[in-house]
Amino acid sequence: MIPVVIVGAGPTGLTAARLLAGRGVECLVLDRWESVYPQPRAVHLDDEVYRILARMGLGERFAATSRPCYGLRLVDSGMRVLAEFRRGALDGRHGYPEANMFDQPDLEHLLRSDLPSAVTLRGNVEVTGIDQYAGSVRVEFTDRVTGASSTVRARYLLGCDGANSLVRASIGATMRDLGFAQRWLVVDIATDAELGQWDGVHQVCDRNRAATYMRIGDRRYRWEFRLASDETAQDYGDIVQLHPLIEPWTRQVPIEELELVRTAEYTFRAQTADRWRDRRVFLLGDAAHLTPPFIGQGMGAGLRDAANLAWKLAGVIDQTLPESALDTYQTEREPHARALIRLAKLIGHAMTEGGTMANRVRRALAPCLHLIPGIKDRILSSQTPALHSSSLVLRTRLRRGLVGKLCPNAVLTDGRRFDDVVAGQFAIVTSTTPSPTQRATAERHAAVLIQAHPGDDLYDWLHHERALVAVVRPDWTVLYAGRDLTKACVAMPIQPTSTQTDKLLSGRSSAATPTGVE
């Protein structure tokens, strides 16, 4: 019996497989396509999601195929700049650019390359049946080339099979509509010519023809235009038909130098599944939630699902976590995904809805946004909401500041990052001096202990919220924060190991990495 079967080899499914394999869990990934779907789709991810890619060892290769985005410009229908928000330093609190443009097929090729030996990827198969038993899930699938049928049993099944999820249907879950539906034309253009445009996202705030423009590569560009009720993508099937729409950005380039890569019509929706788990079956990514694209968090939400679930599932499989840890998945992820969906809806309505009066209001108010204290940081911030309370997010009325949020990937005094030292383990970060007993407790729980000192970024992070200690989960979420190191040790949810783990980092945060930390 295979520990985990994953249905769907898109970014969410492959991320889940790689993260599980990194913890020694064997996975079988089933996908209906033989190779990467070649058409462009998602084009943006933030520094938190970039951090997940880096955790899988893909950070440098992603950097070579992506392009940092330098901010947001709001324009009216005549392309007059209403407001502009430029990003400063490229690297954010997670150690990577806060906004990154990329081509999804490039990312999927990257995720498929050099797969760990614990991952088996089988394409050109159609999953036809899913049945659950007391201790397993039975998966039936058919080879799309030969027609041969096969069956496999797994301890757990992850449904990463998109908006039309068969896995979701198999557990009787349904999508709940959150009140948003807009039809948009998505256009991808390639050209060797320089368009001469500002290198950030352009948002056209216009009720009649809302639009978005962004550069996603050295020679790739993306436009999105809201369609009128009587329009379809077929009305813009060639570059001549498209030219009136993209001409405000391409007027300096001869039309024959513009290569139309793709046009497609999408209905942007806001939906979440009513349940994300049925016993041994879990939903991730678009199978669990759909969001409008206005804040660029659609694909990233799926990778966050994978990062949240993978370490818990691995812990249950190797019996270092109780089975109840899996109950926290939807408890934590659904409110987080819903909050980002609400924000995307708000931004979408603000930029695209209303009539002539709304356009006048936008033209009047947008140029004044920079006068509002903190508005630039709020608009450009990649920081997402804290996770809700669960048995793995111990929030209290007195200690809410850090708990549920992500520990920064701080630079330590020797130049290494937090993630390089912790390497996917639990961590205890403290600004107090641990006693021998506390050090031994951390070691028994296979936790990395980092003692921060004045001047360290982690020291400032703790003391900004008046905490002396924080327990950080493998997905960088703060499980517990307070002023008592002994309580922090007790809060560790993993079962104490019976052998020496050598996962302890004592002394200053610049100390040598302990044996066993990768």
UniProtKB/TrEMBL annotation:
Keywords: Oxidoreductase. Pfam families: FAD_binding_3 (PF01494). The keyword Nucleotide-binding does not apply. Residues 2-342 form the FAD-binding domain. The keyword ATP-binding does not apply. GO terms for biological process: 3-(3-hydroxy)phenylpropionate catabolic process. InterPro entries: FAD-bd, FAD/NAD-bd_sf, PheA/TfdB_FAD_monoxygenase. GO terms for molecular function: 3-(3-hydroxyphenyl)propionate hydroxylase activity; FAD binding. This is 3-(3-hydroxy-phenyl)propionate hydroxylase. It comes from Kribbella pratensis.
